Amino acid sequence: MRLAHVLVFLAMLLSGAVGACQPAAERTSTPAVRSLPGVQDSIRAHIEAAITRGVEATRRQDINAYMAEMPDDLQIKNDSGRMLTREELRADALRSWAIIPKTLAIAVDIDSLRLLVPVTGGVGDSVYVWTAQRWERLMLRRDQVTVDTVLTTQSHRETWRRTRVGWRQYYIEELGGQVWLNGKPYDPE
C-alpha cells in the first residue's frame, strides 16, 4: 500500500499538482536522494530542455529568450564570491554579446543531478544540478577590429525548483573554470 501512495505522490509532483514542500531556505539544507529511477530521468530531461533553450538564446544573442529562462528571484554567486542579481546578469550578457560577433560552439552538460528530500519525506520539488559549460567564440578587442578566439569552461552547482511553468534555476554558484585565448591558456592576472 505504501508503494501506491508514493506512486500517486510522484504522479502529482510531475503533473505540477504538488507545490513547494518547504521554504527555500530550508530546502538547501535537506539531504539528497542519489537516485529514483524514472523520476530522476524525467526531471533531468526537463532540465536539459531548459538548459538547451538558454544555450540557443545565447548562440542567437536573443536577450528576451535568454531572460525568459531566468526566474525573477534568481541568485548567482560568481567565482569571486559576489552575488549577482537578475538585472546584473542581463546587463552582463548584453555587454558580452556586444563584443562577440560569433559563437563557434557552446554546450552545457549535466554532470550529475541529485533530488532533494523535503522534511516531510517523499520526493521534493528541488534538485541540485552540477553542470559543465564550454563556450568558444570570436571576441573583438578594444580596437573593435582585431578578433580573438576565446574558449572558456565553467563548472556550476545549481539549484533547480519545479514551478507551475516547469523546472527553473534559482541558484547558480560558479565553481571555476579555465580560459584559452587563441588556443593558449590565459590568466587575466
Brief synopsis:
The chain contains five helices and nine strands, in the order ααβααββαββββββ.
The helix fraction, in percent, is 25-40%
Taken in chain order, the helices and strands follow as HHEHHEEHEEEEEE
How many strands, which pairing sense, and closed or not: the largest β-sheet? 9 strands, mixed
Structural class, judged by helices and strands?
alpha+beta
Distance between the termini: 61 Å
Poorly predicted regions? 1-34
Number of helices: 5
Mean pLDDT: 80
The gross shape turns out to be globular
Number of strands: 9
Q: Approximately how much beta-strand content do the residues carry?
A: 35-45%
The whole-angstrom Rg is: 19 Å
Name its key features.
189 residues; nine-stranded mixed beta sheet; 37% strand; globular; disordered N terminus
